[in-house]
User: Which sequence fits this backbone?
């Protein structure tokens, strides 16, 4: 697919797919990062006298009630503020108003593309009739929704089959920012793999364990590794269905994998720290302990490239924040190339105030993980 600067957008009607899937509670947007990241592409198009119809999904829409809580109207209001101009909101996904909106207006935002999922999952199943209809609304298609590029939906992939297409500045920023952990990796290369479950990260783990020199595990993922190694993890969260698979990975790559040696647990509402051998049936693991932190710090200080996906503990709770925060403090004084990808990792970096310690923070979530694992973008492949 072309890059936006290599396609003629002047005076064109442009269908612009963005990832505006933000968290909204009581009509208040809790994190506007994705919206801010989308502004440069919109401004570039407007500066080239293009008229822009913006599309995005928001949440999942499985019933009529979901349409109430997953409307993009609050996003439209914030877009207007950031662009310092009126962004017209089109409250539907098919209508005569939608078909004529770019005849007179500079920029419009269509309602949630997933409203089309109420009728046979037409958006998610990349219905060709829907793709053609949306394509008929413009002259050119620009995909700048990196966070959705791993899904071949009508609005991310289908439209591109019927219009000249290109990717925008945010997608380019993501591809460039993630390049140090995909091509010509500077070694030693360390990966911190955390988060709740192995389930949706197994492909990434299998890719990164081959590419990395060190794999440091934390969170619920560490619990699965510990269970696969025969340790008693008590009542801790882990992925039972993946224990055998993780066992195979440990056996093949035992020299690369580092697991916690001590853990912060909660037993009968009391927070304690135990060596891994001393956990009881009542233990519930929430963070790594000081010995583990020291072990991981030593590895990170000897690494030249570091990738973080997920946190090593339940950082949202101050009782279980120390592991994640301590490792971030180490990174703040590290000269390595440091990249974080995935929602939990980036959210923790922002919440704990370590943004300046990272060379790149990927906003892609699942798209980031699939891009790293497969080294390609699904929406851009024929």
Assistant:
């Amino acid at each position: 697919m072309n890059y936006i600067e290599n396609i003629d957008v002047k005076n064109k009607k442009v269908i612009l797919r963005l990832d505006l899937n933000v968290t909204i509670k009581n009509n208040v947007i809790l994190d506007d990062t994705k919206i801010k990241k989308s502004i440069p592409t919109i401004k570039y198009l407007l500066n080239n006298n293009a008229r822009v119809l913006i599309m995005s999904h928001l949440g999942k829409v499985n019933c009529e009630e979901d349409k109430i809580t997953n409307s993009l109207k609050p996003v439209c209001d914030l877009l207007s503020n950031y662009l310092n101009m009126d962004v017209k909101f089109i409250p539907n996904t098919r209508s005569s108003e939608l078909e004529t909106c770019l005849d007179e207006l500079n920029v419009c935002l269509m309602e949630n593309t997933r409203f089309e999922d109420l009728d046979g999952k037409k958006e998610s199943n990349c219905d060709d009739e829907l793709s053609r209809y949306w394509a008929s609304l413009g002259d050119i298609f620009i995909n700048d929704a990196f966070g959705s590029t791993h899904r071949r939906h009508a609005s991310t992939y289908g439209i591109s089959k019927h219009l000249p297409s290109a990717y925008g500045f945010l997608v380019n920023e993501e591809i460039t920012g993630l390049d140090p952990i995909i091509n010509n990796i500077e070694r030693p290369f360390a990966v911190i793999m955390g988060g709740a479950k192995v389930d949706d990260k197994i492909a990434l783990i299998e890719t990164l364990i081959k590419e990395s020199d060190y794999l440091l595990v934390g969170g619920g993922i560490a619990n699965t590794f510990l269970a696969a190694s025969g340790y008693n993890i008590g009542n801790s969260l882990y992925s039972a269905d993946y224990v055998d698979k993780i066992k195979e990975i440990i056996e093949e790559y035992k020299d690369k994998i580092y697991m916690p040696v001590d853990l912060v647990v909660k037993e009968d509402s009391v927070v304690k720290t135990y060596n891994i051998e001393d956990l009881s049936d009542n233990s519930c693991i929430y963070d790594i302990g000081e010995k583990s932190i020291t072990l991981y710090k030593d590895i990170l200080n000897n690494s030249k490239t570091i990738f973080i996906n997920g946190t090593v503990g339940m950082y949202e709770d101050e009782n279980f924040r120390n592991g994640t925060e301590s490792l971030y403090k180490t990174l703040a004084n590290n000269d390595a190339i440091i990249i974080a990808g995935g929602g939990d990792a980036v959210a923790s970096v922002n919440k704990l105030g370590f943004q300046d310690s990272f060379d790149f923070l990927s906003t892609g979530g699942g798209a980031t993980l699939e891009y790293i694992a497969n080294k390609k973008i699904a929406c851009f492949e024929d």
Q: What stands out?
A: Residues 73 and 89 are 7 Å apart (CA to CA). The chain has a mean pLDDT of 95. The chain has 14 helices and 18 strands. The two ends are 10 Å apart (CA to CA).
